[in-house]
Design goal:
Strand content: 5-15%
Oligomer: single chain
Strand order of the largest sheet: 3-2-1-4-5-6-7
Helix content: 40-55%
Structural class: alpha/beta
Distance between the termini: 38 Å
Length: 280
């Protein structure tokens, strides 16, 4: 069972601020210094795909710590089984399966009555290989999960938000969508599709009370690293001016704001969180 890292920080912030590099060292040593906002999401329901590990799990822990009820959708039965009892509503599903998305949506609505927040975090990298050697089957699989799956989930849940006149959607893309990582053409293209689709949806829903944004993290050490070669991991680290990978809790902090009522005039945007790698 995984313990949530979101506990109030009781350290000496003045000491941290007075010592150059201290905050950087502490972020590398611990998962987060972030204090949750008390009851910011009280009464709200969040669906998180890929919510049993990595960024999705960190977001779920953050939103739950701030009062939200969470429906975790994930393809991994073992990861779902290891979740804290806080996450009582768990659905084993594959977001690239259109019918599975429909069933999961219906189950969540039946359980909670409504959905206020959607975080699409599920994704795969695919093989690390040049485009000219990229297997067609693997290309289709990456597109099915990352691009088509995000489309299926957004299309299924957005109408429930529109009817109620409120919703927050955050689709997790990648810095690779902006820059194109070599030997990761399918991943880069699929995440670029996520950004473009989100921009279109945001403009379609802009007067409905539903806000749609994306985040574009640089590399964050999560289980997705297991799909990558060490050489590719080293390449990604070398591209980050901050000299370190981000943490899932840092990404979760940004997503939590985008999922909140405080984010009321930003829609269709791609929010960078890349340690200086991508500054647009």
């Amino acid at each position: 069972m995984r313990r949530s890292p979101y506990i109030p920080y009781s350290g000496n912030l003045e000491l941290i601020e007075s010592q150059p590099g201290a905050l950087h060292k502490m972020i590398n040593k611990t998962v987060s210094l972030t204090t949750p906002f008390h009851n910011r999401f009280q009464g709200q329901v969040a669906v998180i795909t890929g919510g049993a590990s990595g960024i999705g799990l960190a977001v779920g822990e953050r939103l739950a710590a701030e009062g939200a009820r969470i429906s975790v959708w994930d393809i991994s039965e073992s990861a779902l089984a290891s979740l804290d009892p806080t996450f009582a509503h768990r659905i084993n599903m594959d977001q690239s399966d259109e019918s599975a998305v429909a069933r999961a949506t219906a189950s969540t609505i039946a359980e909670f009555g409504h959905i206020d927040i959607l975080i699409v975090s599920a994704g795969i990298t695919g093989p690390v290989t040049p485009l000219i050697n990229y297997p067609s089957a693997d290309w289709r699989k990456v597109m099915d999960v990352n691009a088509n799956g995000t489309f299926y989930v957004n299309r299924a849940i957005a109408p429930h938000m529109v009817v109620r006149g409120y919703g927050r959607i955050v689709n997790v893309a990648s810095v690779a969508a902006k820059e194109g990582n070599p030997n990761a053409s399918a991943y880069s293209a699929s995440k670029a599709a996520v950004i473009a689709m989100s921009k279109s949806l945001a403009k379609e829903l802009v007067q409905s009370g539903v806000i749609v944004n994306t985040v574009t993290p640089a590399a964050v050490r999560t289980p997705i690293f297991e799909q990558l070669t060490q050489a590719h991991i080293d390449f990604m680290l070398a591209k980050i001016p901050a000299g370190r990978f981000g943490t899932v809790c840092e990404v979760a902090s940004l997503i939590a704001w985008l999922a909140s009522r405080e984010c009321s005039f930003s829609t269709g945007a791609a929010f960078d969180i890349s340690g200086g790698r991508s500054t647009y």
